C-alpha cells in the first residue's frame, strides 16, 4: 500500500504519518530523511524530528537527492519518506558542496522523483509519503518559487494517483480524501 499524507507547515502531518507507519506493523521500518542540514535551524529541526521518532524504532536513511538510486540491503516492511517538499527543493536548487550532482530542470526533476516513488514501492510492503500543501498561502512568488510549487504539485498529483490512501492533515485532524 502507498499512502500520501499532505498538509501545511505545522499541521501535524509528520506525526500522523509516523503513527500510520508504525500501525502498519512490520519488523523493519525505514524513515527516509530528505532535509539537508545546511544551517542551524535545519539541524535543530532534524534533531527534533529524530527525538520524536526515537521511540518508534525507525531506521533512518538520509537521502537528499536521487531517490531512484536508493537501494535497501534487506526489504523493509514500511518506508516513510519525509518529506517530498524537501526532496523537490533539493533536486531543483540544492547544490551545497563540491562534488554534489548538478541541480535538475523541472521536467527532469519530476520524472526522476516519479521513478523514485515507483522504485520505493517495489522495495517495500508499505510506502508512506509526507508532502506539503503549498497552494493556499499566497499568490505572488518569484519565478523560482513558482517553478518549485509547480513541480511539487505535479509530483503530489502523481503520488495521489498511485496511492491507495490520501489524507490531508489540518490542525492535527486527519481528513481522508481517498
From TrEMBL:
Catalytic activity: adenosylcob(III)inamide phosphate + GTP + H(+) = adenosylcob(III)inamide-GDP + diphosphate; adenosylcob(III)inamide + GTP = adenosylcob(III)inamide phosphate + GDP + H(+); adenosylcob(III)inamide + ATP = adenosylcob(III)inamide phosphate + ADP + H(+)
One Pfam family hit: CobU
Source organism superkingdom: Bacteria
E.C. no: 2.7.1.156, 2.7.7.62
Uppermost EC category: transferase
Keywords: ATP-binding, Cobalamin biosynthesis, GTP-binding, Kinase, Nucleotide-binding, Nucleotidyltransferase, Transferase
Keyword Hydrolase: no
Keyword hit for ATP-binding: yes
Role: Catalyzes ATP-dependent phosphorylation of adenosylcobinamide and addition of GMP to adenosylcobinamide phosphate.
Protein name, UniProt field: Adenosylcobinamide kinase
Species annotation: Lacrimispora defluvii
